Amino acid sequence: MFTVTKYPQGHFSWADNSSKDAKGASKFYTDVMGWGKDEIPMGGGQIYTMFKQDGQHVAGLGQMMPDMIEQGMPSVWNSYISVDDVDAMAEKAKGLGATVVAGPFDVFESGRMATLQDPTGAFVSLWQPKGHIGAGLVNTVGAMCWNELMTSDVEKAKTFYSDFLGWTYNKMDMGNGSDYWVIMNAGRANGGIFPLAGDMANMPPNWAVYFTVADIEATAAKIEPAGGKIHVPITEAPGTGRFIFIEDPAGAMVYLMQINEAEPWDLE
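Predicted structure:
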C-alpha cells in the first residue's frame, strides 16, 4: 500500500542528511525513529548510511566533507526530485534561472544526480535512478511524507517549478492572512510552498523534509533525551495531523508528523 517501485518525473523520491557528526546523528535517528540501517562504504573511509523501515530504505545519512565544515556549512536534510534525464533537466534549470551547484555526476551504479539552487535561493537535488529509485516506502510510519519549500518569493518559486517540472498548485487559506500552496504532480499532492514571513522572514529559503511517526507525544518525549532540540512543540495541522519541528544533535532540522490518514501510493 505504501511501497514504491518507480517514481514519476517531478516527484520527491529521497531525502538524506549531510551531517557534521554522522555517527551521532545516526544514533539519534535510530533511537528516535526506530530505524534500522545499512552502512555502505563509499571509499576514503566514508560511510553512507541507508536508514530502513519495514525492510525498505527510507532515507540516507552521510558525513559532511571537512572543507564544507570549515566553510561553516550547517548540517542539513536534502530533498531529491526524481527525473528521467538529469543532464537535460540540469540544462533546463539553468535556462530558467537556477544555478547548478554540483553535477551532474554518477553515484556508483545507484543513479545520477545534480544539485540546484533555485531562483529564490533554495537548494534541491535531482535524481535519475538506476539501481536505487529512492525511498522504497512513503507516507506510512517511518517514511518520508512531505517536502516543503519555505521561500521569500512564492510567485517566483511557483513559476520556476511549474516551468521546470510541470507542477501545478492548489491554494489553501492558512487562516492567518497567508496562503499555502499544495504542489500537484502526476495527479497527487507532492509537497507544499509557503512564504517566509514574521519570525521566519530572515531565514534563507529552504526545502524542509517531513517523516511520519506513529505517536507524536511519544516521539516528542524522545527528542531531548537523545540529544536533540524541539523548536516547534506539538502543533495541529488542521485536517492533516500533528507535527513537531526538531533539530538533531548535529544541527540538522526536520519535521516529524503523526498523520491522521496516510495516503497510499498508487502510481507506477
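Summary: The longest strand covers residues 99-107.
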